[in-house]
Write a structure and sequence with these properties.
Strand order of the largest sheet: 9-10-11-12
Number of helices: 6
Number of strands: 12
Strand content: 15-25%
Helix content: 25-40%
Order of helices and strands: HHHEEEHEEHEEEHEEEE
């Protein structure tokens, strides 16, 4: 049976993460089915499982009296559920319940900014999102909100080590957004950070010498004649084995030379 639905973008992303988690769990339990089959099975599990019950009862709560007051506790549990529902409707915080969603906000400021813009960019899918929608997500009592202020993505960050620091990695991800290979749209958060000038050849581990490459295109760059260079922060020029050149920046990919682009491998879904 084919199933399609139109959802609020936040609900769609939450569902996608839940299905990915369920598929990974099934694989860890020994399933050798394909990813799509495991995601389908995970959706069925969600349909058969009630995840909204107030099961996160702290030790010492009413559930602890179940052995002493069997019949009455059953009635109390129903009453407790009603109280929880009323608290949710009233916006009362329940620190003992798990967060249903996590929203991470990257606030970009300039020296002249006094208020936030009315729109922002959603990292998943590189979509624009209204500030009103973000406000709705963040005011839900079940949402965990984390704010990361980003002052200047053009600042040069460096470390003497081969592995970039968390701060360097985050700056590169936010600057480039996706894999920087021509026409690739895989999220930078799921990519390797590649030294444009190899570390062994004296290339520094710095924001100006690091670029996100998905695993497929990282291997392509390492084991084939494809190569690239940085011409400006966030701007890269690629050269194919046949000599065709392409410029990739935050607006997309453009051929520097005339003629159709060569066929290149695309990253496979995992």
């Amino acid at each position: 049976m084919r199933f399609e639905a139109e959802l609020d973008i936040a609900d769609a992303l939450d569902l996608d993460r839940a299905l990915s988690h369920g598929a990974a769990t099934l694989k860890a339990l020994g399933s050798d089915a394909s990813l799509d089959a495991r995601r389908s099975a995970a959706l069925g599990d969600l349909a058969r499982t009630q995840t909204a019950l107030d099961l996160a009862i702290p030790e010492g709560g009413r559930a602890a009296r179940a052995t002493d007051e069997g019949g009455r506790v059953a009635r109390e549990a129903v009453h407790e559920g009603g109280r929880v529902a009323r608290e949710e409707r009233a916006g009362v915080s329940r620190p003992d319940l798990l967060h249903a969603r996590e929203v991470v906000l990257h606030a970009h400021f300039n020296a002249s900014d006094s208020v936030l813009d009315a729109t922002g960019r959603l990292e998943e899918g590189q979509r624009l999102v209204l500030l009103d929608h973000v406000e709705d997500w963040c005011t839900d009592s079940r949402t965990k909100v984390t704010i990361h202020p980003v002052i200047d993505l053009n600042a040069e960050l460096t470390t003497p080590a081969y592995q970039p620091t968390t701060r360097i990695r985050e700056a590169v991800i936010l600057r480039d957004r996706t894999c920087v290979f021509s026409w690739c749209t895989r999220s930078a958060r799921r990519c390797d950070l590649d030294h444009v000038t190899p570390y062994d050849a004296g290339g520094p581990t710095s924001t100006s010498n690091l670029a996100p490459l998905c695993r497929t295109h990282h291997r392509l760059k390492t084991h084939s004649a494809w190569h690239y260079e940085t011409t400006a922060p966030g701007t890269y020029e690629w050269t194919s084995p046949h000599g065709h050149r392409f410029r990739r920046d935050r607006t997309g990919t453009r051929a520097i030379d005339t003629g159709p682009p060569p066929d290149v491998p695309r990253p496979r879904r995992r």
